[in-house]
Amino acid sequence: MRRLWAILCGAAVLGGCNQDHIFFSITQEVDLVDPRINGTPTAAVTLGGTVYVASKFSGAIHTYTAGAWGVMAKQPGGKIIELAGTENFLFALTSSSGDPAGSVTLRKIEAGSIGSGDWETVSGAPANTQSLYGAGEYVFAGVMTRSGTFKDDAGIETTVEISGTPVAGFEIWGAKEDAAALTCLKEKTTFLTGAAFDGAATYYLGTNRPYSQGGGIYTFAAGGAAVSSAAEPGTKGLDIAGIIALPNTTAVMGVSRNGSLLYNGGGGGGFTLLPAGLTFTGALGVWESGGGAKKLLLLGIQGGSTSTTHGYRELALAADGSLDPNNTHLASPGASANSSVSNADKYESSLRRHPLVGITQAPDGILFAATLKNGLWAYRNDEWNAEE
Q1: What does the radius of gyration of the chain's CA atoms come to, in whole angstroms?
Q2: Would you say residue 291 lies in a domain?
């Protein structure tokens, strides 16, 4: 970059033209580094003040505590496909071959045993588990089945086919965090894409809409035996990309690839659709300033196949974590004083170029973003860069 700067400076002197705008653009370019955790990272799980994250299909879980990185003392074994966290347990979905479509194993370890105890194998977890999410005291798994059947909200069952060929179906399995085994909570559904707990007694589960079948947000009552048969009002048929509980509230929000925000203000009553006109990746996280005076909901977005408009958008929340459904402007980072970044141009030259699969704020305030295929990034020294 210094060489390019010198060349342009010389050109400006010789040509006598104003190159200020070019010089400014160069100063905003971020010198990118190689990531500590490369590839596509798993979801980052915060448990007991420590952040746990791994590179998908690697064999090591990395730990971040009080500003320092390390490696978990006892690994779950196998290639790590997904991580999930509940209130008291860390879960890892692993595969001996690294093939998520092959035989997988679900393991867990209690927070108080990390570093000294051993991982436990969760029985009952189907070998073809594809996705994993934790919320409150429950863990939920999306399972692929050989039967390509789907049952709609009215209980009508159909065979799902593409060009006359039956395709895979899905189920939702789950259990309380301390249970020895998972059980099937919903048959003949669509793929599980997220879970959130309202802090009271209800869990919300997002599913996508593959093969033009199903999709929506379903509920599960704590202590219950099954996921609701019908999707929540306002969500039926939507391709849900992700779901999150807003902090210090009973409100839940979801995002769909159809270009909508979904908001439940708490206490039931279904979801309100807030059209956004963006394709959401499902990466959702809450950022707050020091002291918590300002809060933002961060939402990963994805542009077209040739677009570099990726990264995330910011939605302002009240200091108590609530949302005003009449004020849902999605701002680009750095576009306003209330932002997770201080320099919009540096954001534009770095993280904006990558789709995000996860975003989370560590207990020490550092913001992490998991990119698709380009490793784990962090916001430090007023710029986004790969975390070294």
Answers
A1: 22
A2: yes
First to last CA, the chain: 20
pLDDT band of 363, cuts 50, 70, 90: very high
pTM over 0.70: yes
Instruction: With respect to residue 376, please indicate whether it lies within any of the assigned structural domains.
Output: yes
DSSP helix/strand/coil, 254:
strand
Q: Cα separation of 376 and 358, whole Å? A: 9
* Sequence-separated (6 or more) residues with CB below 8 Å from residue 321: 246, 247, 248, 249, 251, 286, 295
Pairing mode, if any, of strands 149-151 and 252-256? unpaired
* Whole-number Å distance between alpha carbons of 375 and 40: 5
Q: Is residue 254 part of a domain?
A: no
Structure-token match 């980072």, residue found: 333
199: exposed, middle or buried (Cβ count in 10 Å: 0-12, 13-18, 19+): middle
Sheet containing 104-110: order of strands = 79-85, 89-95, 104-110, 120-121
Mean pLDDT value across residues 225-253: 95
Q: Residue range 237-252: average pLDDT? A: 95
User: In whole angstroms, what is the distance from residue 28 CA to residue 11 CA?
Assistant: 20
- Say how many domains are in the chain: 1
Place of tokens 């050989």: 146
* Segment (H or E) for 347: helix 344-348
Does residue 218 lie in a domain region?
Answer: no
Where in the sequence is the domain holding 285, given as residue range(s)? 278-388
Q: Using H for helix, E for strand and C for coil, what is the string for 293-340? A: CCEEEEEEECCCCCCCCCCEEEEEECCCCCCCCCCCCEECCCCCCCCC
**C-alpha dihedral (77, 79, 81, 84), degrees to nearest 10:** 20
The 3-class secondary structure across 106-151, one letter per residue, is: EEEEEHHHCCCCCCEECECCCCCEEEEEEECCEEEEEEEECCCEEE
